[in-house]
Amino acid sequence: MRDFTNYLILLLICHLTLGGCKKDEAKNSGPDPGQPIMFSDFSPKKGTVRTRFYIYGTNLGTDISRVKVSIGGRMLNVIGVSDDKVYCIVPKRTNTGEVKIVIDGDDGEPLAEHIFSEEFTYEPKVSVGTLVGKVDQYGNSAVVNGTFEEAGFNNPTWALFEPNTNSLFVVERNQLVRKVDINERQVSTLITNGQASFRNLQTATLSFDNDTLFIVDDHGQNNKNFVAIAYTLRSENFRRVHPYLYDRTSYACAHHPVDHVMFFNTWWGGGLMKAFYDPVLGGLNSKELFRVGGNSDMKTTIFFHPSGNYAYFLEGGCVYKSRYNWTTRELEMPIVFAGRQGVTGDIDAIGTSARFSFLYQGVFVKNPDYAGKEDEYDFYVCDVDNHSVRIVSPTGEVSTFAGKGSPSSDGKKEGYIDGDLRKEARFNRPSGIAYDAEREIFYITEINNKRIRTISVE
C-alpha cells in the first residue's frame, strides 16, 4: 500500500511539473505561425529618459527573448510582450531616430521586421545626481578611502577633472588632495599637509597638458621663506611633491593655457602675482601686478579663459575680468564684470545688477549656441551660500543653472535632493566645480553634504 501511495505522489508531482512547463511554454510563446504578424503604431512620439514606450500590433507573441526594439540604433530593454503590445523603457542618451522592431523565430533568425515611417524624438533631460560620498544620521562624515560605496569626505571644496584617466582631483581644504577614479569607482588620498611642508592646502590647478598638478598653500607667513606653490607629476603618479615657488601665503594659482606663465594671489593686500625666472636667484621669483578690489586682504581665485585672452577673478560676491596682454605676457588691471564688490544677494541680472553670495570655483564650458562668435564659452560658478550653480555669459548676463529646487514653506534653499535642475535639486554649500567636456558631465563638491554631485544629460 505504501509503494502504491508513493507511486501516486510521484505521478502527481510529474503531472504538476509537466503541466507547469506547458503553462510556462504557453506563457512565453512566439507568434502563431498560421497568422500574419502586423505592426500598427508606437507611442509616445517623443519623450525623455525613463519614458514608457509601447509598440502596437497583432500576433506579436508573448516571448520577450524573441523581441528586439531600437530607436535610432540604440537598443531598448524589452520589459513585457503581449500578443498586441510590446512594452519598453527609454534609456539614458537614447537617439532621436527611426523606430525598429524585430521578432525572431524558433531558429533565432528574424521572423518579422518593421521600421516605422515616423521617428521618435528623444528629449534630453539634464538632472542632478550623486557620484560618491555619504554622511551618517547626524550629518557627519570622515576621510575614508575605498570603493564608492565605502568612501567618505570631510571638507571637499575644490575639483579638477583629469581627462586622461577619467578622474577627479578633489582638494579637501586645509587637509589633503584626493583622487576619485571614476572608471574604477575608487577614492584614494594622494597628498597630505605634511608633504612639502604644507601647512594648509588650499586649491590646485592643472598644467595645459594635464601632466602637472600645482598646489597652493596657506602657510600663514608674510615672507618668501616657505613654499607657496608646489607641484606633482603624472610620471610619478602624482604622489611625490616638489617645491615650485617660495613666496608669501597663497590661496590660488592659474597656469596660462598658451604662454604657460604662472599667476597666483597673496593674502596681504590681495595682490595678484606673476611668477618669472630670475637669473640672480637662478630660479623662480615673483612680482605684484596689481591688487584685486583695492588694498584689502583677499582670497581671490583665478580662472583663465581657454583662449588665454582674459581671466576671471572671484572674490566674495564679485566676478572681476582681467585682459591678458600678449606682448608683456601679463594680466591687466581688472574691472568688475558681474556682481558688486562688498554687496551680496541672489539676483539674476546683467553685469553689476546681478548679485551673488560667496563665489569660489568656476569653469568655462563651450556653448554650441555661440558657435562662430568671438567668445564661445559660458562660465559656470559655484555660489556657495546661495546653494546653487550660476552661469555668467560672455556678455555678463547671470542666470541660475541648478539648485534651490523643491520649494518648501520654511524658505530654505539648501538641502540634499537629486533630480531636475531647478524643480527638485538642492545643494548645501557647493564650492568646487569641474567639467568633463567629452561626456558633458559637471562634478560638484559640497562642503556641508560632503559629497560629489553630478549634473549630466540623461
Write up this protein.
With 458 residues, the protein is mostly beta strands. 6% of the residues lie in helices and 46% in strands. The chain has one helix spanning 2-27, and strands at residues 38-43, 46-47, 52-58, 67-71, 74-82, 85-89, 97-104, 110-122, 126-132, 146-147, 156-162, 167-172, 176-181, 186-192, 201-206, 212-217, 227-233, 242-246, 253-255, 262-265, 271-278, 283-291, 301-304, 310-315, 318-325, 330-331, 335-339, 359-366, 377-383, 388-392, 398-403, 419-420, 430-436, 441-446, 452-457. Strands 1-3-6-5-4-7-8-2 form an eight-stranded mixed sheet, with no helix packed on it. The protein has a five-stranded antiparallel sheet with strand order 32-9-35-34-33, with no helix packed on it. A hairpin with a 2-residue loop joins strand 24 (310-315) and strand 25 (318-325). The longest helix is centred in the first third of the chain and has 26 residues, at 2-27. The radius of gyration is 29 Å and the shape is elongated. The protein starts with a helix and ends with a strand. Residues 4-26 have low confidence and may be disordered.
Major sheet details: 8 strands, mixed
Helix count, DSSP H or I runs of 4 or more residues: 1
Question: Largest sheet, order of strands side by side?
Answer: 1-3-6-5-4-7-8-2
Secondary structural class: mainly beta
Shape: elongated
In short:
This protein is mainly beta and 458 residues long. The protein is built from one helix and 35 strands.
